[in-house]
Amino acid sequence: MPRISELKSSPVITKLDKPIFTAADIPYDASLIFNAGVIKHNGKYVMIFRNDYGTDKERFENEGKHFDGTSVGVAVSDNGVDGWKVFEKPLIDSRDYEGTEIDRLYDPRIMKIDGQLYLCLAMDTKHGLRGVIATLSDTLDSFEIVSASAPDNRNMVLFPEKINGLYCRLERPMPVYSRGRDRFDIWFSASPDLRYWGDNELVLGVEAIPYANDKVGPAAPPIKTEKGWLTLTHVVDRDESRGKNGWEKSWKKRYTAGIMMLDLNDPTKVLGVCKEPLIAADLPYENEGGFREDVIFPCGMILEDDGEVKIYYGASDTVTCLATANVNDLIDLCLK
Ligand code: BMA
To answer: In Å, what is the CA distance from 208 to each residue of 55, 194, 205?
Structure first.
């Protein structure tokens, strides 16, 4: 497999100089806080984050102590940057599913369509990995699953409005058998009711990204601009020569964030893809000491009235970070 050299973040990106959220901010059992969806709701910023808990670097490496479980938590802030108030209990905890078909739910994205909040989640089950869509209560403390895909599929995001009368989503199925190895792409499907899904179309194949050799998937829910749906992706390259890059004995993949533009009326149509990474792991807490180094995994993107775009991403599967950019710069990256 070709080796892909060092990757850097785009110059249009400004990163905060420290993570916005870490395990130390959580009032319950927490080890890794990452891959968080964020939305503006009732004048506040609502973050739904993933937390893998029950071990630490030393115990993992020396005692072989793995994680006890995964939870999904809620935090709220006035400005989307700091002052996050964390709900006392997680919204979802793998402990609650012990003895059932479900192992855990994780990697949350949050969306609002016609005033109703929704979550997209990955769900590990005893018979495969499923993509889940759920309603979330306005009070942010209860959820109900509306539909779950057949395995193996995950990384679903919903478009924030119906298009041509249908709910629309991006997703990343995992066709291992037919593609011979990891070679995963972004797909589209539509639904009249969020329950029955069809109109499946390939949106973007991994071969369209010069800095990928493994997979490309949806990241945050797309945002609407006058030029099209601005859509973040996660982009993965694999290098067999990589060894111990994190707590595990070996971690061979690298995750970066990419960006593309989809047609407003037909989101299966790609209007442009940026051929270089948007966000790469180039800060110490993104590529040193974390659970899996060199992982950038955005699940939230917010367009502010002044044109600032806030991008929330998990770094090294350990902390949650924020980067900003101007919306016009992001559009130019896709369409130039
Ligand atoms: C993917 C998902 C993400 C994770 C990434 C890197 O397969 O499990 O939650 O951030 O791997 O480990």
So the answer is: 38, 29, 6
Q: Is 2 inside any structural domain? A: no
Residue range(s) defining the domain that contains residue 283: 10-335
Q: Tell me: the pLDDT tens digits for 234-269?
A: 999 999 999 999 999 999 999 999 999 999 999 999
Q: How many domains does the chain divide into?
A: 1
Ligand 1 center from residue 306 Cα (angstroms): 32
Q: Which atom number of ligand 1 is nearest to the Cα of residue 107?
A: 9
293 lines ligand 1 (CB under 6 A): no
pLDDT of residue 302: 98
Instruction: Quick: pLDDT tens for 175-214.
Output: 988 888 889 999 999 999 999 999 999 999 999 999 999 9
292 alpha carbon to ligand 1 midpoint, in Å?
Answer: 9
Does pLDDT of 1 surpass 70?
A: no
DSSP code of residue 281:
-
Q: Which of 35, 27, 103, 101 is nearest to 69 (CA)?
A: 103
- The owner of tokens 């070996």 is 250
Q: What's 316's domain CATH number?
A: 2.115.10.20
Distance 48 CA to ligand 1 centre (A): 16
